Amino acid sequence: MNRLSRLLAVRWSGQISDGLFQSSLASFVLFSPERATSAISAATAFAVVLLPYSLIGPYIGIFLDRFSRRAIVAYCNLARALNLCLVAYLVKSGHSGIILTLVVLLSFGLNRLILSALSAGLPLMVSKEHLISSNALAVTGGTIGVVIGGGIGIGVKKIVDSFLTSDQASAVVISLGAVIYLISALLSFRLSAREIGPHEHEERFENAGFKEMLEGFHILAEHADSIRAIITTAIQRGLITALTLMLLLLERNTFNSPDNPDAGLASFGIALAVTGVGVGIGAIVTPYFAARVGRHQWIRLMVLSSMPFLAVITIVTNRFTVILAAFFLGLTGQAIKVTADALVQSKIDDEYRGRTFAFYDVAVNGSIVLGALFAAMVLPQSGQSRTLPIVLIVVLAGTAVGLLQSTNFSADSRPTT
């Protein structure tokens, strides 16, 4: 447990900083009095920060299987700390154009690489029978860390807003995030050079490059249940993103006055905190129930359990019903994610695990972008829509029937090739 705690310290500290960074960006871009918030602008933000990494993620994943993951995590955190210093300067200066976009892109790309490395290395820290509970601890603690960081960011900004401009206050929060990234980098060095892999005997270079990336895909395709679990997780993350966009617009433009973005940001922060509670509960109950009903059946049940709460929104759309749906979608989504992570980690050898989790990230990122873009197409400026939750229900039903039938999603699933 002491070894795992060192990995968790790196992950959780970094994700607290993620929350600080994301809350300050949301305030600067989406909840600023000078900048109008629309579904298109929010969806574009998702696409801008996620798509570039998705294009190169599988290739970058090769490095996670060939070089010390500890070194990658440490130096990427150092790079993020420096990157946020530049972001803070740009935000303080009021820059919101292409330069800020490119710098933010770099930060998010480094973040995905770090999380992939930590997920790939976790199975080397615990036994197979403890994978689900360890994933629950790692992923959920990180998610809660993001929520806590976001809350700290909103609180700090509110304090410094009284004597600084809004953009300057956002820059202060971002600078605090840079300090925490630096701490996360230093914590990385508590891990030994090869503690989270790869092992020295796994470092082969005869197929380095595109062939090696395809080799990793081939290994993943040999485990039909793993790839179905990844796709299911990706779909669910896309649905959560669509609902988050709906909630953002409702809090910004309907539940609060559009002329009072601070109230909208505060309410949105509370809604995310409630969702974070659902995420925590989902992770807490998953090890118990997954062990009793089986990983595959638990994922199926969680997909089906998401649907009734979305149905409520189609009948009554108010702050309570939307947050209730977000709470349960967060709960079931985290249960799916934790179980899918453990399923993939237990099936894929460490030699290919880095590329597998890089592909996993790409699938999730792509689905998040699609969910955001679809929501942008159907949501009005007010955020009120019955079409969106109905479509989400249909997608969940299709996932349960098409991907997760017991005949094609079980421990003895046949290879996909």
Structure description:
By secondary structure, the protein is mostly helical. It has a single domain (2-192, 218-402), classed as Up-down Bundle (Growth Hormone, Chain: A). It is 78% helix and 0% strand. It has 14 helices and no strands. The relative contact order is 0.17. The mean pLDDT is 85.
Name the descriptors:
single chain; 417 residues; mainly alpha; Growth Hormone, Chain: A
Summarize the entry for a quick read.
Helix content is 78%, strand content 0%. By secondary structure, the chain is mainly α. Helix 7 crosses helix 13 and helix 8 (224-254) runs antiparallel to helix 14 (387-402).
Q: What percent of the residues sit in helical stretches (DSSP H or I)? A: over 70%
User: Under the CATH scheme, which class?
Assistant: Mainly Alpha
Please tell me the CATH architecture by its name: Up-down Bundle
Fill in the CATH topology.
Growth Hormone, Chain: A
Structural class: mainly alpha
H and E order: HHHHHHHHHHHHHH
Strands, count: 0
| Domain tally | 1
Q: Provide a count of the helices.
A: 14
Radius of gyration, in angstroms, nearest whole number = 21 Å
Shape: globular
Distance between the termini: 38 Å
Query: What do the pLDDT scores average to?
Result: 85
Name the beta content range.
under 5%
- Sheet with the most strands, sense and barrel status: none
Which residue ranges are poorly predicted, with pLDDT under 50 across at least 5 consecutive positions?
none
